[in-house]
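Please decode residue identities from the backbone states below.
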């Protein structure tokens, strides 16, 4: 890794026999003006007023305070409206009134911890390492484990949104630096992800893909356009773009919660999109889209589920099969041939489940949340029960009955005299298959603040 080293030159004027100190002056970061223009075009950066010709005055040579810097960070993340409309609590007693929404948002979302137990030091000048720390946290990285907050430039150099410009010798940090770092960070990789920041802003509706393209931000692969209700694909040159799926008819009153992509063993993908409404997102649409060789093989939707997006990706553990369901049926594909190898009528398989299990509703559908060659693990979209079905034998097991004794069911508030309780059933989450067992995590925080692992032996 190349790093620029600061060289301190002392000019000795021999005739006067005195040292003439060099006074550091603000210097516009390389690319700062261009970065500010592009960020402003995206709606992620503001000036301090207007120039005589009507253009924004970005004051890029000015040294920002910590209050100003955290405000610029919140705008970069497209969260200014949320910050201003929210009610935030912080321990800080020294934040200017105008800055409280921004500092409150940043503190609540763990982007800043302040400078002391009750101090944010908002009037102090921001340093390079402090602002880079803000940005790294916004990308999902943690100070102390992923990077050192007082030498944050070392990690940002590795990620590529700085390039040796900053060090312990850096003395002046300007709004131009903020603009340059902020724009470069839009293409920085998020922690535990192959995605980058600007793609997340598109997914969250903060910017549009067209606006990103106009300032030179182009990505390949899947792009979720929350504003238009579209799943897009962009080719490897970042030029051609076409619609994979259109669910704009489901946008009214709904909030797209996010997208995940699971790769198969043969280089294909299953894209899962969650679309919720209600408060807080009581109902969820779950979309599964199977894409092979850039073409949609099949897509399904489970509508109005009370499951907040089952964790199952739609791909079997070995990556060789894809399982898609619509709540009523499930179809299994051989991913090598992209051909259907099995189809199941989920409601018929679960038809004998007693009425007492149907909490609130009689029309529960079933999402596939686990899959093996001999079994399907289903989640009831309304009753929230986990059910193991063995299609070959027709055997159906309701998980809570298999892993808990009757006393445990009552103690853990999973059942009462009238049958299963939604809260208890919802608190039992599938955690994967392990050595012939299906593993479930039961949330017991309402009992003694812990979680416990239970195992179901496959037949």
């Amino acid at each position: 890794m190349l790093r620029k080293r600061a060289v301190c030159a002392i000019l000795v004027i021999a005739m006067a026999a005195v040292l003439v100190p060099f006074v550091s002056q603000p210097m516009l970061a390389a690319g700062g003006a261009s970065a500010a223009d592009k960020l402003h075009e995206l709606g992620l950066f503001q000036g301090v007023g207007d120039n005589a010709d009507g253009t924004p005055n970005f004051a890029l040579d000015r040294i920002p305070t910590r209050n100003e810097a955290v405000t610029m960070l919140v705008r970069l993340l497209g969260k200014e409206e949320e910050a201003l409309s929210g009610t935030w609590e912080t321990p800080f007693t020294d934040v200017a009134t105008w800055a409280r929404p921004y500092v409150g948002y940043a503190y609540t979302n763990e982007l800043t911890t302040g400078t002391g137990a009750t101090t944010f030091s908002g009037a102090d000048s921001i340093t390079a390492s402090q602002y880079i720390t803000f940005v790294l946290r916004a990308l999902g990285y943690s100070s102390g484990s992923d990077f050192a907050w007082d030498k944050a430039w070392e990690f940002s150099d590795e990620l590529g949104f700085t390039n040796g410009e900053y060090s312990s010798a850096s003395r002046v940090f300007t709004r131009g630096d903020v603009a340059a770092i902020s724009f470069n960070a839009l293409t920085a990789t998020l922690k535990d992800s192959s995605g980058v920041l600007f793609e997340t802003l598109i997914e969250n509706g903060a910017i549009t893909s067209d606006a990103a393209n106009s300032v030179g931000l182009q990505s390949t692969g899947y792009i979720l356009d929350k504003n238009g209700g579209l799943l897009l694909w962009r080719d490897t040159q970042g030029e051609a773009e076409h619609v994979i799926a259109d669910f704009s008819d489901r946008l009214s009153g709904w909030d797209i919660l996010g997208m995940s992509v699971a790769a198969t063993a043969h280089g294909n993908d299953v894209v899962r999109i969650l679309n919720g409404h209600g408060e807080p997102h009581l109902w969820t649409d779950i979309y599964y889209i199977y894409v092979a060789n850039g073409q949609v093989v099949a897509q399904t939707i489970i509508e109005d589920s009370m499951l907040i997006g089952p964790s199952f990706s739609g791909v079997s553990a070995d990556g060789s099969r894809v399982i898609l369901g619509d709540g009523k049926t499930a179809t299994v594909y051989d991913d090598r041939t992209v051909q259907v190898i099995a189809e199941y009528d989920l409601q018929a398989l679960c038809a004998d489940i007693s009425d007492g299990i149907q909490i609130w509703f009689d029309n529960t559908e079933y999402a596939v949340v686990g899959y093996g060659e001999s079994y399907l693990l289903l989640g009831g979209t309304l009753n929230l029960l986990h059910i193991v079905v063995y299609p070959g034998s027709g055997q159906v097991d309701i998980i809570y009955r298999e892993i808990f004794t009757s006393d445990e069911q009552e103690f853990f508030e999973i059942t009462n005299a009238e049958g299963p309780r939604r809260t208890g059933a919802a608190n039992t989450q599938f955690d994967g298959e392990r050595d012939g067992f299906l593993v479930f995590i039961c949330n017991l925080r309402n009992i003694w603040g812990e979680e416990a692992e239970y195992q179901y032996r496959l037949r």
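Observation: The longest strand covers residues 295-305.
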